[in-house]
Amino acid sequence: MLSAPEADAARTGNQLSKCCMDVNPSAPDASVPLLGGSRTMLSLRQDIERAARCTAKVLITGETGAGKEVVARCIHHQSARSKRPFAAVNCSGITETLLESELFGHVRGSFTDAHRDSPGLIRQAQGGTLFLDELGEMSLRMQAMLLRFADTGEMQPVGALGVMHGCDVRLITATNRDLQALIETGAFRQDLFYRVNVIAIFVPPLRDHAEDVPDLLQHYLQRASSTHGMMTPQIDPSATDALIAYSWPGNVRELRNVAERLVLEDFQRPVTAQDLRFSSATQHDAAIAAVTAESSRTEPLWEQFEAGKNFWTVVYQPFKHRELTRRDVTELIHDGLSKTAGSYRNLLALFNLPAADYKRFHAFLRQQNCNLEVRRYRRLADDAPADARAVNNAYVRHTAADSGR
Q1: Which residues make beta-bridge pairs with 271?
Q2: Distance between CA atoms of 129 and 125, rounded to whole angstroms?
Q3: What is the tens place of the pLDDT at every residue in 94-119?
Q4: Over the stretch 386-405, which tens digit does the pLDDT of each residue have?
Q5: Which of 57, 144, 297, 299 has its CA 20 to 30 A from that of 186?
Q6: Are 263 and 195 in the same domain?
Q7: Distance of CA 207 to CAs 84, 120, 200, 230, Å?
Q8: How far apart are CA 283 and CA 375, in angstroms?
Q9: Domain boundary among 204, 224, 249
Q10: Cα 60 to chain center, whole Å?
Q11: Which of 276, 221, 256, 245 is nearest to 338 (CA)?
């Protein structure tokens, strides 16, 4: 029997089911195409095709918003079960007791207001596919129940005296968590991991196949335009380059939201890089993306530095006379930090400045809001191949030696 709080949760189950669960094989997103022509997406499509040819259990991993449910739906719709239901459950959006009831069902009288039996999603998806998203958020108790079902096909509805057999449902699970790390801390069952990890599919983050961003953007622009009855905006090349350069921490979900926002803003001209607005947490990356997207005006400045001129002559004086913009200075600093792996002090050598000018140099950048966060450049340097880091380090040492002569 369920406790009073649990019964209250179960009474709200119908409303929660509408937002967390879908057993309709013809739902709007049921056959979303896997867009993109990159090698990364080609490899992912091949993984999906292999998984669709059998009925083995699948574990899909990847970052939040990368498209794990789309992959699960693609597997279902390319399989022999495509005419049967696809049931999707977000395990992090439901309490443990309600999740048990929704998956395995309950019998009449098992809790207050349980006036009739409920078959549960597993039986409703008979012959089809059950997709459990956010598997890493499932409690240990629910993991034990899922393991029993995955092993034997047995399940026990809430309040039932005996177990039920013979449910024919393909199990696909997904998580953005490191399950191996959870196993080490005791938060995830190792036996369940081995049971669900028969076919492993990794969905790469959007930044790993950024060349697909234009196709994805166009798809979501057209979809948002159709949904809201508005015109599809035109995208300027500078905006396209900025979108490709952006790191997309929210992955495809973030791209979809950006596309919808662009449609709703109803631009009467092509959207430019300056029109793009990303989440406040990633505003720094967005600014850099917009900077690097535009045609560079810094090459002549670097040529002057190589000729021996210093920052005050090449940048400061022209900036004071409005011959250079704040955007030009920001782009120059971005280029420099990319060479120095985020070191402002090493910029002094690149800009032919003595160490004594560091405070004055940094004060100027802060005053003009041209100082960029260095963590991104250090992360990029750590991810760069060893030979590329060696070239950059050699470049900085060589320039420093020249400036000291």
Answers
A1: 235
A2: 6
A3: 777 778 878 887 666 555 665 676 77
A4: 444 443 444 444 444 444 43
A5: 57
A6: no
A7: 34, 38, 21, 29
A8: 14
A9: 204
A10: 14
A11: 245
